[in-house]
Amino acid sequence: MFSEVHCEGTASKTQLEGKPCSLMGMKVLQKATRGRSAGLFSLIDTMWPPGMLLEAAGRGQACEEVKAHGPPPSFCYVLAAHPDMGQIDPIEDDPISKLYQPPVPRVLREILQTDDLSTRCSFYARVIYQRSQLNSLLLLQQRETWLVVTDVSLQGQEGNDPGLPKTVSVCVAPSCVLSRAVLDALTQAASHSFLFRDTLRAHGQIVCAERSVLLLQKTPLSAASSVPSCELTSPVQLSKLDSVTQVNSVCSVQGTVVGVDESTAFSWPTCDLCGNERLEQSPGHRGSFSCGDCSRVVSSPVLRRHLEVFLACPSRPQCTVKVKLSQPSISSLLSVAAGEDGSYEVRSVLGQEVGPLPCVVRSVSAHPAGGVRLEEVELLTAGRASSQPGRRP
Fold first, then answer.
1. Three-class SS of residue 46?
2. φ/ψ bin of 154: left (φ > 0), alpha (ψ from -120 to 50), beta (otherwise)
3. Total of domains in the chain
4. How far apart are the two ends of the chain, measured CA to CA in Å?
5. pLDDT in tens, 285-322
6. How far apart, in whole angstroms, are the C-alpha atoms of residue 133 and residue 136?
7. Is residue 341 part of a domain?
8. Closest CA to 165 of 202, 205, 194, 199
9. Global confidence as pTM
């Protein structure tokens, strides 16, 4: 029988993993079933069948470990401690229980090649892009966060398994409880390595939901370690945009400019000192702006632009590919298209080659000859992580 114990307030709960414990003052919150608690049972199925200690009937022989091959449980009790009565104590001087089934991290390549979607999976991976970088810890805890990750098993492919992507999208749902160390890392504009524990696979995506755990990898793993490493020794490779590229994934795009979305093209001035984009027209200075952040007059503002172009891509010949370009790409594209008066003509950028560009896929039309909307992004560079590896709850 399995039970899930809600041990909120237990100071030593992170040190209980794998330990035999005594429970006192527990109450049953509910009897969970597979139909109503699919996420809980996907975790139970991952740990089934456990090792069991059985004694030969009537012979008084010593216990021996055997494997139970019966069907996994169809129900599970959810327990919680009575106020001021509940207690969870490890049994002192008792070794790690033989019933304990620790998670076994696998490489992403192996996970993607596995058809079994009913159980949880654990893996090490490096985050190379985070959608909607959030500076607020509160927003990270309230919103769905998309991470694009990779490891050496995907980056090291050389002609093998061409159907596998170079990167994988991971959805971190609000129900996934994140530690302060992980939250701090996700608010930084830097790449970190994580252990993703007990994640779900659903609809072609990997999801960190309730009962999943994210842990910062403290130090690079050694070559002699049995744990799969996610440390990359060369620049990140991206899969090319093709017919199987999914929304929220990151891919490489290259093509020829065949059109410009003039309805969305615009420019705006920014402060040349602090980068403030909310400048106000200076009342007594023609052509100058006032920066509230610097409390100064900006006489030489830096012009930023919004530009979306249509590309003809060899990898998607029958598809309309629209890309929102980054500032460096816009400057490069327009550098040879400026007229004598400083203005730009659409015909000046048509036929120019762009890319390869790292882009995140914003939307994909269901129709094969439909459109794909992308946005050029900057991949995260390596950051420093400092956190102790955690244990399985």
1. helix
2. alpha
3. 3
4. 17
5. 666 788 888 888 888 888 899 999 999 999 888 889 99
6. 9
7. no
8. 205
9. 0.80
